[in-house]
Amino acid sequence: MQQIQREKTGIDYFIVGWKLIQQPGITRFVILPMLANIVVMSLLLWWFFAQISSLLDIGMHYLPSWLQWLSYVASFIIVVTMAIFFCYFFSLITNIIAAPFNGLLAEQVEAKLTNQPAPETTIWRVIKDIPRILKRELYKLVYYILWAIPLLLLYFLPVVGQTVAPIIWFIFTAWMINIQYADYAFDNHKVSFSTMRQMLAQDRVDNIIFGSLVSLFTMIPLLNLIIMPVAVCGSTAMWVEHYRDQIIEKK
Q1: Any alpha helices (H) in 154-243, and if so which ranges?
Q2: What are phi and psi of 203, to 5 degrees?
């Protein structure tokens, strides 16, 4: 009896990402984005832990007086929320710096998964693509800010700010992290940012699950230093199996 193949989920693609970074021909393209991640993330995490006490005091200042008896629970929620916020912020900075190398990594992964030759890699090509890549990163930053501001305002609402807002913020961060890493494969094929978002929304739950796992691993010491190439590889595998054929058919 023929076994029906189960469709992969966001969890599966996250696991695939860990396997792909170990593949021959891929590993050497992992090194540069990983080094950028290690240097920038280490500096930013040092700053975060040096400032966490002051940030917590600011968060507790906005806690309503009638909820002061929940100060320990509120402190935990505030710290977790700040950690999620800064994890995305840190990822954003490191991704801007490593964007050209992440794009090359996505190309190599796609070539391996499709058994097709990858585009020729030269220093001049990388340099020439930097303005376009930075422009794309700007699109993502603007999109993030337009959603982040109203969501952050939820934290100032009594009860909602201490209960519902952290959950919404976590889901939003997972969605944004998924967009960040999925974008490299889409951008390599010159797919517009708006079209990419619409296509990712077809599998919104799986993409949020994938982004949630990346977000959680970003908060784990040591593992957060190698999560960037893992996320690029996993999201590129999802691109190949879910979205690539749709783009090719339209061309």
Answers
A1: 164-188, 193-200, 204-218, 227-238
A2: -125, 50
Look up residue 101 and give its two tokens: 């190398």
For residue 214, how far is the Cα from the chain centroid? 6
Contact residues for 181 (Cβ-Cβ < 8 A; gap 6+): 95, 102, 211, 214, 231, 232, 234, 235
Are 206 and 73 in contact by the 8 Å Cβ rule? The answer is no
Place of tokens 């957060």: 224
pLDDT tens, 17-73?
999 998 888 888 888 777 777 777 677 767 766 766 666 666 556 555 655 555 566
Its pTM stands at 0.77
CB-based burial label for 89 (10 Å; 0-12, 13-18, 19+): middle
Q: How far is CA 80 from the centre of its chain?
A: 17
